[in-house]
Amino acid sequence: MESEQLYHRGYCRNSYNSIASASSDEELLDGAGVIMDFHTTEDDNLLDGDAASPGSNYAMSNGGGAASSSTHLLDFLEEPIPGVGTYDDFHTIDWVREKCKDRERHRKINSKKKESAWEFTKSLYDAWSGWLVVTLTGLASGALAGLIDIAADWMNDLKEGVCLSAMWFNHEQCCWTSNETTFAERDKCPQWKSWAELILGQAEGPGSYIMNYFMYIYWALSFAFLAVCLVKVFAPYACGSGIPEIKTILSGFIIRGYLGKWTLMIKTITLVLAVASGLSLGKEGPLVHVACCCGNIFSYLFPKYSKNEAKKREVLSAASAAGVSVAFGAPIGGVLFSLEEVSYYFPLKTLWRSFFAALVAAFVLRSINPFGNSRLVLFYVEYHTPWYLFELIPFILLGVFGGLWGSTRFGKYPVLEVILVAAITAVVAFPNPYTRQNTSELIKELFTDCGPLESSQLCQYRSQMNGSKAFTDNPNRPAGPGVYAAMWQLCLALIFKIIMTIFTFGLKVPSGLFIPSMAIGAIAGRIVGIAVEQLAYYHHDWFLFKEWCEVGADCITPGLYAMVGAAACLGGVTRMTVSLVVIVFELTGGLEYIVPLMAAVMTSKWVGDAFGREGIYEAHIRLNGYPFLDAKEEFTHTTLAREVMRPRRSDPPLAVLTQDDLTVEELQGVINETSYNGFPVIVSKESQRLVGFALRRDITIAIENARRKQEGIMLNSRVYFTQHAPTLPADSPRPLKLRSILDMSPFTVTDHTPMEIVVDIFRKLGLRQCLVTHNGIVLGIITKKNILEHLEELKQHTEPLAASWYYHKKRHPSPHGSNGKSRPRVHHVQLIGSFQDSRAGEGGDSEERRRRRRRRKCAS
């Protein structure tokens, strides 16, 4: 049958032949071990004059083995041209080319290291440069995180007062050495003065309250105004959390300046100001951006990373792990966060270096000890009571709440002015003690278990006397007036946090979503925990509590509910699972609470996925229009490559270059008249056999370099991409050879390749473009942008796909025009038309059946 003939002719086989595993860790991409065989039976003598006989096998290996061809994948490495291989801003890198460049560099170093002691030293430096750059990144990340924590705590307390004995001390540090404090009022000491005491000379009364209220709003507005001005004037990229952009950069996208020194400097300063202003945001997310800026800056000290964009992204993956490590004091969780949430490509060596960077960053932060508690975070807690099986019910309910919170789409709201949001936040937050204090301190208070040393309002239970002894050790005791008052204040704080977080997200200041989401979940969890605790006390004879909660037994821990609620809300927003559980586990330091955490996090993910499968960062990427192919999305449609490729029927013909027929003037005309980033190179207009692919930027740089360094290059000079120059008249100007910039093995698929395979290739290999061919003849091109547009169209169109004959008729009309004449064979229209005519005589076999048969043969 004809489908079998097409298969034996290589129609299916040449699209995506085989994938072999890499031979070592140095073989970086998932497709780095791909081995492709191109069996050519005709037009071999037209290609480039190489010694290739008809029917010969041109083998190209990207793996670790020796190449069986004299032509490498990147031939331009033999004749390097300055600037070739670099990328413009807002462009996608070529992962395959970058990996091949790194392998070629590695081969050269290995071949020279035995020549002299100096070359051997250079090889050692190259081998250890990866560990050096992640060490520097970890040191800088830990130091900056400690600086940010100390400065943010000091400026946050500055809104309430000042320490007269030492201006650089915050409220807690100011009262450490005081002998006048009492246990009940441990936060009051003569050294610390509120603004009302400094200005009015009185600490109590309506006047002092109003003065403190006014100064709180004044400092909040000042910090917010200064932060937004610094971001707007010096570093616009310093706003937001930075995690969506880092995910996009790690996928191969270029955003110049986003990880630069100015962004690092302004982000560090404005992050302190934004947190101190009292806005409903956190510093944990932006710390990942700060760490990645450090990794990017230090990578320029090592040529191995500064000249290779793919290798640089390995450093950025390790830096993101260091950022989470210092944000939550969770080195292992940081590595898993980098693997699960942000990294696009994560080889084994990057896993080791990420762990080492997270370890170094955590060690530096622990040495600084910014909170004075010998811990890496402010809200580190330890629980000593077990949890019981019936508590899984409220834990799962908290997971449902977290999933509902995660389904909220912040990006749909307009971006409000920073000053307005800061003013509303300050005015509403001051009267409530749970919204007035720093969010990290609020989480710490909600996580903390009530004990004899706690003076929080949440721990003001009624003590019951048993003879002459009060058994205050029993946590399950009736709540006092302070607990009920705290419950109402927490309910108001929950509503306030939800509303203000929605409006704060997206402001042009550094803002993270980790801490606000954890605060919302912790508030809800503490409320539920206290409610369950009181139920267990007043109704201990219920079947739920009777078996576990005996009178006087240690039963319910409200702080544990707060921790589970915080994890559930954060998981619902980000859709994190494994890394989130490990992060919270490292916060608590106990394995006993893994099961309730897993139950709440998975429930929040399932509930959130019911409203939309993308997390907040994926939604942010989509709203900003970044070219990001999410590996978590499933492609279940039955479209083909020919339905997505460009050009379409209504588009201009595909812009191609011939291998030896163009002049410099004609080549520049093609570049000036089009906006494409690359051009397929074919044998001739008549043959249209594919030779390779040339990038627009490389062509422009090569022509400018040739005019500057070579004499005799004129507008009518012949341009050729072959190995040998074509035969020219004696009076012709000097030709220009551009073979060195030609990619001789661009990735190609046939026009009948299913799009699910094409999308999978783009995701796993990080391709920029893929050429669509039929029997070696170029039909069109598919870029990452085309795939994203196609996926968006499929999401928007909910109606069922049309029948295959409809696409057959719509995409491939008659090869004859309206005037009855044949269409000129200048691109794929005539080719496909003749191909359809050749298939028209095949009766009784539907297009869908033939398509399935070809898929089975390709799969086999």
TrEMBL record:
<dbReference type="GO" id="GO:0031901">
    <property type="term" value="C:early endosome membrane"/>
</dbReference>
<feature type="compositionally biased region" description="Basic residues">
    <location>
        <begin position="850"/>
        <end position="860"/>
    </location>
</feature>
<dbReference type="InterPro" id="IPR001807">
    <property type="entry name" value="ClC"/>
</dbReference>
<dbReference type="GO" id="GO:0031902">
    <property type="term" value="C:late endosome membrane"/>
</dbReference>
<comment type="function">
    <text>Strongly outwardly rectifying, electrogenic H(+)/Cl(-)exchanger which mediates the exchange of chloride ions against protons. The CLC channel family contains both chloride channels and proton-coupled anion transporters that exchange chloride or another anion for protons. The presence of conserved gating glutamate residues is typical for family members that function as antiporters.</text>
</comment>
<keyword id="KW-1133">Transmembrane helix</keyword>
<keyword id="KW-0458">Lysosome</keyword>
<dbReference type="GO" id="GO:0005794">
    <property type="term" value="C:Golgi apparatus"/>
</dbReference>
<keyword id="KW-0868">Chloride</keyword>
<feature type="region of interest" description="Disordered">
    <location>
        <begin position="832"/>
        <end position="860"/>
    </location>
</feature>
<keyword id="KW-0812">Transmembrane</keyword>
<dbReference type="GO" id="GO:0005524">
    <property type="term" value="F:ATP binding"/>
</dbReference>
<feature type="transmembrane region" description="Helical">
    <location>
        <begin position="287"/>
        <end position="303"/>
    </location>
</feature>
<feature type="transmembrane region" description="Helical">
    <location>
        <begin position="128"/>
        <end position="148"/>
    </location>
</feature>
<dbReference type="GO" id="GO:0005886">
    <property type="term" value="C:plasma membrane"/>
</dbReference>
<feature type="transmembrane region" description="Helical">
    <location>
        <begin position="216"/>
        <end position="238"/>
    </location>
</feature>
<keyword id="KW-0677">Repeat</keyword>
<dbReference type="Pfam" id="PF00571">
    <property type="entry name" value="CBS"/>
</dbReference>
<dbReference type="InterPro" id="IPR014743">
    <property type="entry name" value="Cl-channel_core"/>
</dbReference>
<keyword id="KW-0067">ATP-binding</keyword>
<dbReference type="Pfam" id="PF00654">
    <property type="entry name" value="Voltage_CLC"/>
</dbReference>
<keyword id="KW-0325">Glycoprotein</keyword>
<feature type="compositionally biased region" description="Basic and acidic residues">
    <location>
        <begin position="839"/>
        <end position="849"/>
    </location>
</feature>
<keyword id="KW-1003">Cell membrane</keyword>
<dbReference type="InterPro" id="IPR002245">
    <property type="entry name" value="ClC3"/>
</dbReference>
<feature type="transmembrane region" description="Helical">
    <location>
        <begin position="513"/>
        <end position="532"/>
    </location>
</feature>
<keyword id="KW-0813">Transport</keyword>
<protein>
    <recommendedName>
        <fullName>Chloride channel protein</fullName>
    </recommendedName>
</protein>
<feature type="transmembrane region" description="Helical">
    <location>
        <begin position="315"/>
        <end position="339"/>
    </location>
</feature>
<dbReference type="GO" id="GO:0062158">
    <property type="term" value="F:chloride:proton antiporter activity"/>
</dbReference>
<feature type="domain" description="CBS">
    <location>
        <begin position="742"/>
        <end position="799"/>
    </location>
</feature>
<dbReference type="InterPro" id="IPR000644">
    <property type="entry name" value="CBS_dom"/>
</dbReference>
<feature type="transmembrane region" description="Helical">
    <location>
        <begin position="413"/>
        <end position="434"/>
    </location>
</feature>
<keyword id="KW-0547">Nucleotide-binding</keyword>
<feature type="transmembrane region" description="Helical">
    <location>
        <begin position="259"/>
        <end position="281"/>
    </location>
</feature>
<keyword id="KW-0967">Endosome</keyword>
<feature type="domain" description="CBS">
    <location>
        <begin position="645"/>
        <end position="711"/>
    </location>
</feature>
<keyword id="KW-0129">CBS domain</keyword>
<dbReference type="GO" id="GO:0005247">
    <property type="term" value="F:voltage-gated chloride channel activity"/>
</dbReference>
<dbReference type="GO" id="GO:0005765">
    <property type="term" value="C:lysosomal membrane"/>
</dbReference>
<dbReference type="GO" id="GO:0008021">
    <property type="term" value="C:synaptic vesicle"/>
</dbReference>
<dbReference type="InterPro" id="IPR046342">
    <property type="entry name" value="CBS_dom_sf"/>
</dbReference>
